[in-house]
Amino acid sequence: xxxxxxxxxxxxxxxxxxxxxxxxxxxxxxxxxxxxxxxxxxxxxxxxxxxxxxxxxxxxxxxxxxxxxxxxxxxxxxxxxxxxxxxxxxxxxxxxxxxxxxxxxxxxxxxxxxxxxxxxxxxxxxxxxxxxxxxxxxxxxxxxxxxxxxxxxxxxxxxxxxxxxxxxxxxxxxxxxxxxxxxxxxxxxxxxxxxxxxxxxxxxxxxxxxxxxxxxxxxxxxxxxxxxxxxxxxxxxxxxxxxxxxxxxxxxxxxxxxxxxxxxxxxxxxxxxxxxxxxxxxxxxxxxxxxxxxxxxxxxxxxxxxxxxxxxxxxxxxxxxxxxxxxxxxxxxxxxxxxxxxxxxxxxxxxxxxxxxxxxxxxxxxxxxxxxxxxxxxxxxxxxxxxxxxxxxxxxxxxxxxxxxxxxxxxxxxxxxxxxxxxxxxxxxxxxxxxxxxxxxxxxxxxxxx
Length: 450
Ligand code: PLP
Hints:
Strand content: 15-25%
Family: Belongs to the class-III pyridoxal-phosphate-dependent aminotransferase family.
InterPro entries: Aminotrans_3, PyrdxlP-dep_Trfase, PyrdxlP-dep_Trfase_major, PyrdxlP-dep_Trfase_small
Shape: globular
Structural class: alpha/beta
Bound molecules: pyridoxal-5'-phosphate
GO cellular component, one term: cytosol
Pfam families: Aminotran_3
Number of helices: 16
Keywords: Aminotransferase, Pyridoxal phosphate, Transferase
CATH topology of the largest domain: Aspartate Aminotransferase, domain 2
């Protein structure tokens, strides 16, 4: 076993070496050439080996490889921050850059707390957060506490934060009653959130946090129209902050640069990650709106926080080059166009499959949920590890496609999905090929099971 073998699967099974990447493909040591249909974990938005991004990183290393942004700023950081603010139409006003989505969520939580302490009329009693079941916001203690995914939380439950509670997510496939319209469903979820504020004491809540499209925990579940507007209204009613976690669903993945732009429901703060740097560097961020920034400006004037690698110059240069490439080549438009192709191809090939319960998503962010029985949506026994079997089958030489399997889709423990998140510059041929390969993998896995 290799000394790097720490994670659950690698403890027992030596990891395969990935040697190189080109466009949508990754080449492995044993000769397999894998179509990377998930961009890792919805990260590689430009595909692999992009010359412009590599050159921008090399230029930055030659210029200045590191400085602490507590003392200095740098050109790529400033340029990236301006580009990001501009991309929100000025609806966000400041940018904090970190190395991972989890760090971005930790920063959001701490800044929310500091905001209430620094208000002209401070509200030190605001210490609680409301998030949603079946969500994922990161793996560090604070961000894992925010997440509502039972399987990811269970081992660590006794050391998670006690001041985070969870309400139902918006998941029409699993939770909407047949008799309910979108508006009825939203009204029910509003009532639930309102009741949670009341239960906790509305004056004790810092923020409500949600993913615009739930990624890793449920497999690309968008909310019904009007949901976020209604959730934000509840936050406003009680003076709490409204925070969106766009680490997975943002930066173009869903067909607009920021997922909230689809219904123009502007958050007070927003985390971003994966598609920001496209995997060329570990980079994520927190975009902060005026309400929070103005309060800090009028008080201590700085966020009491900091990481050694915050605003790292090479990460910023990489992210800037990725974002410029997205703009220059109109890739968000390609995401919308190719998203339509992906949806059509998946539905055509898989809708009638007896174990495909739901196909859902937005842009180039699609999930397929598998069920034992389509009529009652009964999931497979979690012991069968179905999602991981599908993922493993995809990697076999016959298929050579990388799929992102997830378990706990239905209730945090049972339920299986795979997630697809191909690069924004995917061609129609590549998208069709992904759908063909997914169909082949699904048929093979269930052929072996049934
Ligand atoms: N938030 C969301 C919505 C995510 O999907 C993830 C990662 O999958 C994170 C936060 C955590 O990001 P990271 O793995 O970079 O810490």
